Amino acid sequence: MSEGEPAPRPAMSNLAQRILTSLVGAPLVIGAVYLGGWFFVGLMLLIGLLAQRDLYAMAEAGSIRPLKSVGLAVGALVIVRAVWPEAVPLAVVGLVVAFIAELWRRHEAPIPNIGTLVLGVFYPAVLAGYFVELRVLSAETLGDSDAILLTITAMVAIWAADTLAYFTGRAFGKRPLFPRISPKKTWAGSVGGVIGAVLFVTVMKLTFVPLLTWADVAVIGLICGAVGQLGDLAESMLKRSVGVKDSGNYLPGHGGMLDRIDAMLIAIPLVVLYLDHVRDLW
Q: By residue range, what is the domain housing residue 206?
């Protein structure tokens, strides 16, 4: 650097980027939860398809060539299935079309191509559809207010787990949780994440969501705090298998959409299955 030339500005830290992205994204998501209906469905459709595109891009980094256009079309159908049941048979037709279309592509690896396309339909698209069920279908039985609060409880519990796991791991983490997949994650951080989720669900029960029982607090807290972290590790496993660091690069501090919602994709469907089929709330 020559004399008198201004020093370059230091790059924004990863943590600062994560916080900035969250400050922009969280109000957008919470606003869509509040509005409900097709506002929420539309946002989940966008988020789900971006995450599905991320998965296909990761697969391409590993020399796999899924038929992305058909996969994304089928993914859109299964995301909106809760509000448009007729989408399910159309999705089946789409998968059959993708299977047959592989005949004309002349790729040497049809099984990985088709398998990855189907994987993208399930993960993340089918799983993202449970977000719609949690907010939109639950409102038909519980009413809009309780549906909003339940959706916020589940989503923010996962955010709370992620945040507390990060800071607890930084402060106390020594023993790696799963070094083969994610060397930086520690047992201390994992425990901190579970505590963060359970504490947040507890606060919501005591303040805004009295319909939750203490058993609900324990189950939802464990799902959002513990199982959500397994979702994060599962996505890390997929990335490591194809040698990529992030699923994308358009969310500063997070990477791609799949990196941002990996924990939710595993936790939210289990919360919905618990509330719907065990608690029978709707």
A: 14-278
Q: Using one digit for the tens of pLDDT, what is the confidence trace for 71-92?
A: 999 999 999 999 999 999 999 9
Asked if the structure places residue 203 within a domain, the reply is: yes
Q: What is the distance between the alpha carbons of residues 63 and 180, in angstroms, rounded to a whole number? A: 23
Mean per-residue pLDDT, 270-282: 97
**Partners of 186 in the β-ladder:** 176
Cβ-based neighbours of 237, under 8 Å, separated by 6 or more: 181
| Residue 80 in domain | yes
Choose among 257, 259, 252: nearest CA to 235: 259
Q: Which helix (H) or strand (E) holds 254?
A: none
169 assigned to some structural domain: yes
Q: How far is CA 33 from CA 8, 128, 146, 200, 245, in A?
A: 41, 14, 11, 18, 31
> pTM of the prediction?
0.92
**Is residue 211 within a helix (H) or strand (E), and if so which, with residue range?**
none
What is the chain's length? Answer: 282
- More confident position, 252 or 101: 101
> Per residue in 219-264, pLDDT tens?
999 999 999 999 999 999 999 999 999 999 888 877 899 999 999 9
Domain count, the chain: 1
Q: What is the largest CA-CA distance in the chain?
A: 71
Give the containing element (helix H, strand E) for 177: strand 176-178
